[in-house]
Amino acid sequence: MFKSLKLPLPSNFFCCPFAYGYKPKLYSNNIELRKSASYTYMHSLPCPNRLRALLLACKDKASTSKTHALMLLTGLFKHGNSNGGLIASYVKIGDIKSARKVFDVLPQRGVDAWNAMIIAYSRKEYPVEVLNLYSQMILEGVRPDSSTFTVALKACTRLLDLKTGEEIWCRAMDFGFEYDVFVGSSVLNLYAKCGKMDEAIMVFDRMPRRDLVCWTTMISGFAQSGRPIEAVDMFRRMQKEGMEGDGVVMVGLTQACGNLGDLKLSLSVHGYLIRKDLPMDVVVQTSLVDMYAKNGHLKLACHVFKNMPCKNVISWGALISGFAQNGFAGNALNLLVEMQDCGYRPDLVSLVSALLACTQVGFLKLGKSTHGYIVRRLAFDRVLGTAVIDMYSKCGALSWARTLFDQINSKDSISWNAMITSYGIHGHGKEALSLFLEMTKTNLKPDHATFSSLLSAFSHSGLVEEGQYWFNRMVSEYKVPPTEKHYVCMVDLLARAGRVEEACELIDSMNAESGLAVWVALLAGCCKNGKFLIGEMAAKKVLELNPDDLGIYSLVSNYYAKARKWDDVASVRKIMKKTGMKKVPGYSLVEVKGKLHAFLMEDKSHHQNENMMQLLDKLDHEMRAIGYVPQTEFVLHSLDEEVKEKMLCNHSERLAIAFGLLNTGPGTRLLIIKNLRVCGDCHEATKFITKIVNREIVVRDVKRFHHIKNGICSCGDYW
DNA sequence: CCCGTTGCGG
Length: 719
Description:
single chain; six-stranded mixed sheet; 38 helices; 6 strands; elongated; DNA-binding
């Protein structure tokens, strides 16, 4: 990061100048300026333009050097004029080192020379060098021009160095560039990229003249700051002022549409591009793919993608990440292969998407080979490392996750949080705590996310005392204001431990409005512990908040069933039917011999169905012999007990387990991935199965892991 | 008098 300009501050400089009533002085004389060298030269030597033309025509090293020599001979070099052109011609042939060498020995350096050098560094993306030269230039008393300020501001934007940027902007205004569109749009971009859209709009509204670039900056600024509605408003305002968009403007709008998820608007943006016959380059088309993918319309995204005459890795990445983000892990992974078949090398983004896809479906084998690919092909950085940690832990390989965690040498709080979360979901609350304590010994500060990870780890392990202790210390010592997420963890922790009264008190003490999630957590705890007094209230609260998740209604209905309030069960069922919410079909996945197999509830279509049923039948008898009693309360239909018991056997995880047992060698660990929470009966049954077949079965449900071995589950039946 | 300078994709 750029340290400091070490320059005297312009007058009235303070934070965002307009916010504090800053009034720029036009053409101020408060800084002693030497006249620029090119200015003096014009009156003393002939034919400067011929030399410039010559320099501009230079195409290679030879002609540049020749002209350079000519300048030295004629004495032009000594007098300083045209040196900007000389530097620029070295830059043009890509020889920045020579350009800098010339620059350093110039007897007189006019603003053109400085600009040429600064622009060269800007193009090569050396923002720190740009700012160094800029400040040196000011100190030497050379008068910067519009380009100088524009490029210097761009450098600050790259570094996200708002403070330096504002300082430069103030100076630009003092030098008379307040209404320069180039300087102005650079300032807008600086604010936009630093996430200060309110300041940007303040500057924007004061601009007397705005070009298309200014509008684009505002539109994409709003889009990228998560304010898509304002981005669209900005575009409408622009049209009202008689401007038409170009491709770049539309890219900003596609981002806004992607975030809004408004298909109609998305289609109209696409339509605008076609109607106005704007050039559809790779960038525009890729942003359309991304827009449709973010809207969840993968078909449209694919359609645009397929019709792209020219694709690149970014286009592929947009589609792959679209599939992965929308939960279509298989499509994402297939696309990654297809991309390679088409001769494109997966890059960071497509690989992270692939990891995400593997994580979603618990495809450890493919995740591992993706990890291998990353290690071989790319530098293994912190971001990728954290993604791989997440993948391993969510694919059940906690110890591998830890090994990798130890290998990351400059961990940020995201890496720590990922590892703490990993211990949490595997039910290792104590390890999560000791890792947290280790983190506090570094100079990283635990933030709200760290405490979310820690508290949820406690809740998965039922560590009530620890939870209360650290919740209090989070507020008092670490000054992290508790968010709803933290409250949910605490309510969950207390309520599941049966301390529903304390959970209630905690909800009452919340500053913010208590949302749906805390009441759901409370209700779940009441349901588990048969606390019908507080449960009644929690159930009412939950229903009042009109949840749109069918799972929540199932919880309420389960609760009423447990409380034997059949009328209420019926009325909740009625709501569920009326709202027409689709039940998410439960499925289970199991990896066998490097392939992932999926099972739906009561799925009889599998070619091994016969064998699986036989095995389950056999296991059912053996389980009953050693004490298994089917818990039919988990089947919600009003059916005969016998039918209910049969249905339990057809739960998807039983099918997956049967398939896994039949197709793997004795003693192999099975990993089952579920998209819902594991049902209580299956949990019991699996414990018995591990005893009978002498295997370890790991089940990942939507919330956490269950490592089941010898009839005992790592969750301690606490989930 | 001219030139260089500002906004876009996973």
